[in-house]
Structures are given as structure tokens and as C-alpha cells.
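Exercise 7b. C-alpha cells:
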């Protein structure tokens, strides 16, 4: 029954910024963790960032200092602010949410393309 609806992807020039949104159909505090994965063509899907229910965050090394995950509990929405974008950031980005030991949920993915 849980749905994750993503928005904000698109085409941006190197050095530009995008903000992705993930709106959940359930209170996001119901989840132990939410975050973002990405997958580029021919590559494995990787975890980009996570935010836990207590607010702790973690990032893959390649995006540290450039990406920021945040949440709006009242709006049941998680955001990914992406600054100083590089061509290697080009990928399909997926929102996810988890209830530890019970279930995982995924968004449909949104394309981010960084190109001149």
C-alpha cells in the first residue's frame, strides 16, 4: 500500500543544481530509514545517501559535500539537494524506504542527466 512518488529529475549543466523530492503515502516517521539510490547504464545500483528516523545521515564518498538529504515530516517528503553536479552523477535515481526486518519500498525512478 505504500507509494513513493518522485519528482525533480531532469537535464542540468555541469556545476548546476537539482532538488529531488520523494513524497510518501505514509508518515515518513513510520520508516526506520529513507534514502536515495542511483544506477547508471551498465553499472550496479549504489546507495547514495540515507536518513534514519532519528535524523542521522550518511553519504557515499563521491557525493559528500555536494549532496544533502533532508526531510519534511509534516509533508511526508524526503529531499535530495544536489549541487555542483558532475557528468558522472548521471543516473536514474530511486527513492526508497524501509521498515527494518519487515519490508522495503521503492519509487519508480527519476532520470538525472548532467551534460553540456
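Sequence design result:
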Amino acid at each position: 500500500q505504500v507509494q513513493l512518488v518522485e519528482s525533480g529529475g531532469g537535464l542540468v549543466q555541469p556545476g548546476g543544481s537539482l532538488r529531488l523530492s520523494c513524497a510518501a503515502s505514509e508518515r515518513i516517521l513510520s520508516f526506520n530509514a529513507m534514502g536515495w539510490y542511483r544506477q547508471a547504464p551498465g553499472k550496479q545500483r549504489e546507495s547514495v545517501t540515507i536518513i534514519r528516523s532519528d535524523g542521522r545521515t550518511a553519504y557515499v564518498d563521491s557525493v559528500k559535500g555536494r549532496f544533502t538529504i533532508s526531510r519534511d515530516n509534516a509533508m511526508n517528503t524526503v529531499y535530495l539537494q544536489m549541487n555542483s553536479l558532475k557528468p558522472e552523477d548521471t543516473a536514474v535515481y530511486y527513492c526508497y524506504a524501509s521498515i527494518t526486518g519487515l519490508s522495503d519500498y521503492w519509487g519508480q525512478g527519476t532520470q538525472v542527466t548532467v551534460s553540456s
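Instructor comment: The longest strand covers residues 91-99. The chain has a mean pLDDT of 96.
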